[in-house]
Design goal:
Layout (H helix, E strand, L loop, with lengths): L6 E4 L2 E4 L10 H5 L2 E3 L2 E6 L4 E5 L1 H15 L7 H14 L6 E9 L13 E9 L10 E5 L20 H13 L4 E5 L5 E4 L3 E6 L2 E4 L10 H14 L4 E2 L4 H5 L3 E6 L3 E8 L2 E2 L7 H15 L9 E3 L2
Parallel strand pairs: 8-9, 8-15, 12-13
Antiparallel strand pairs: 1-2, 3-6, 4-5, 4-6, 5-17, 6-7, 9-10, 11-12, 11-14, 14-15, 15-16
The protein binds pyridoxal-5'-phosphate (PLP).
Length: 307
């Protein structure tokens, strides 16, 4: 179970979580107008430090999301990091955490329009270990819901309202007894999951859908692509693949801030590989855990210590 930390940041102040509220009339509630980010921090007991994973990359994506939607962030990265550091210290966090910064439209005007009259950055924190109910391997399905096209709602910005698409797919998957859903896009190619990117391994080659597939430009995704290059001298094939190919991979796994690296062991009741987490996937989980915990010197470049 995850716990919520007692303080959040809202309206430029550290505020007790119970008082960190938005009005029912605001555009964030009425129309889902907001862009958000999710950042993990891992507690290293030996170093007595909390390491944030690639916070500047998360900030840059939030900044781009604000630009795409036309929202006003009005904040530099150093100031963002200062606020996050202050919040973590105020909450005395010495465990694994997940931070959720959201730039939301607080304007209460009636029209669904990004009018910037009151865009505000709010951040709350929870403790978070595993996001999925099983870390051994997931039984997933292909969703009957399609991923929206980038020219309908930007897939490169984490837009709060756009997660209705994810919620429809995830709810359907859970109701049908699966752990997660995989979206196809309008072209019929594999896109991503409700909140994670996807990779497949077949005949020693690693595949992931390209960024033109209407998926999110995942920060974990790009870290994994770099890891394959550095650790295995393997160039990941960022290419489209269809549903048939999805079923025939030797290994499949999701990547994401919440999802970390999680093996997929079946899709639509078809076993992937042996039906257990694959060898390469297991190795990747192992190295990625060490990296995020701050145990590998050469990857400390991805970490920002808080204490
Ligand atoms: C739809 C979607 N795709 C992919 C991801 C993975 O992105 P990242 O690795 O940056 O967390 C996320 C999570 O943020 C997501 O919500």
């Amino acid at each position: 179970m995850s716990k919520t930390f007692p303080y959040a940041y809202i309206r430029k102040k550290m505020t007790p979580i119970a008082k960190a509220q938005v009005p029912i009339m605001c555009k964030a509630v009425q129309y889902g107008l907001g862009v958000f980010s999710g950042i993990r921090g891992h507690w290293n007991a030996k170093d007595k430090n909390l390491y944030l994973f690639r916070p500047e990359d998360h900030f840059r994506r939030l900044e781009e999301a604000a630009k795409i939607t036309g929202m006003k962030l009005n904040l530099s990265y150093p100031k963002f990091l200062e606020i996050i550091t202050k919040l973590i210290k105020k909450n005395k966090a010495k465990e694994d955490v997940y931070l959720r910064p959201t730039l939301y439209a607080a304007s209460t005007k009636l029209t669904p329009r990004f009018d910037n009259t009151d865009d505000d950055l709010a951040i709350y924190m929870i403790s978070l270990k595993d996001y999925f109910s099983s870390s051994d391997g997931l039984n997933v399905c292909v969703s009957s819901w399609r991923r929206f096209d980038d020219d309908a709602i930007s897939s490169k910005a984490k837009i709060t309202g756009a997660y209705c698409n994810s919620a429809l797919a995830k709810t359907e998957a859970i109701n049908n007894g699966y752990d997660e859903a995989i979206f196809l896009n309008r072209d019929g190619n594999v896109c991503e999951a409700s909140g994670a990117n996807i990779f497949g391994i077949k005949n020693g080659e690693v595949w992931t859908p390209p960024l033109s597939a209407n998926n999110l430009n995942g920060i974990t995704r790009r870290s994994i692509i770099e890891l394959f290059k550095n650790e295995h001298d393997l160039k990941v094939r960022e290419e489209n693949f269809d549903r048939s190919m999805l079923y025939t991979f030797d290994e499949l796994f999701f990547t994401g801030t919440a999802a970390k690296v999680t093996a997929i062991t079946s899709v639509d009741q078809r076993k992937i590989g042996t039906g257990k987490a694959g060898k390469t996937t297991k190795k990747l989980i192992n190295i990625f855990t060490k990296i995020t915990n701050g145990e590998l010197e050469e990857y400390k470049k991805w970490l920002t210590p808080i204490y």
